[in-house]
């Protein structure tokens, strides 16, 4: 669990927030709990699944776009690719 998520959970427990999710997780289809961005370059990003279940993950690009989701096995890795501009900013779980 990342620091941002842990802080949100603590605030929810204290009754200070209505949600434990970071602000970006309010976007449809974003969880941000299992997928982690581990490496990236022009047009590609590698994700690691930190959970023990299969997921689909993607990334948020600096352009505001999100490439197609890719399947990632439990504790495995997957590569997201895209054409055009944009730098990978963070990973998201797809639902």
Features:
3-stranded antiparallel sheet, elongated, disordered N terminus, 1 helix, single chain, 95 residues, 12% helix, mainly beta
Q: What does this 3D model show about the protein?
A:
The chain is mainly beta and 95 residues long. The chain contains 1 helix and 6 strands. The longest helix is centred in the N-terminal third of the chain and has 11 residues.
List the helices and strands and how they pair.
Elements lengths: L2 H11 L21 E7 L2 E6 L5 E7 L8 E3 L4 E5 L6 E6 L2
Antiparallel strand pairs: 1-2, 2-5, 3-4, 3-6
Q: Which sequence of strands runs across the widest sheet?
A: 1-2-5
**CA-to-CA gap between the ends?**
18 Å
Radius of gyration: 14 Å
Order of helices and strands: HEEEEEE
Q: What is the number of helices?
A: 1
Structural class: mainly beta
Q: Give the overall average pLDDT.
A: 77
Roughly how much helix do the residues carry, as a percent range?
Answer: 10-25%
Largest sheet: 3 strands, antiparallel
Summary?
Helix content is 12%, strand content 36%. It has 95 residues and is mainly beta. The relative contact order is 0.23.
């Amino acid at each position: 669990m990342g620091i941002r998520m842990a802080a949100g959970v603590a605030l929810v427990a204290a009754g200070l927030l209505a949600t434990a999710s970071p602000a970006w997780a309010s976007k449809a289809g974003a969880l941000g709990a299992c997928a982690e961005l581990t490496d990236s370059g022009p047009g590609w990003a590698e994700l690691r699944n930190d959970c023990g279940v299969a997921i689909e993950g993607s990334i948020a690009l600096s352009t505001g776009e999100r490439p197609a989701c890719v399947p990632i096995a439990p504790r495995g890795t997957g590569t997201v690719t895209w054409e055009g501009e944009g730098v990978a900013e963070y990973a998201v779980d797809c639902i």
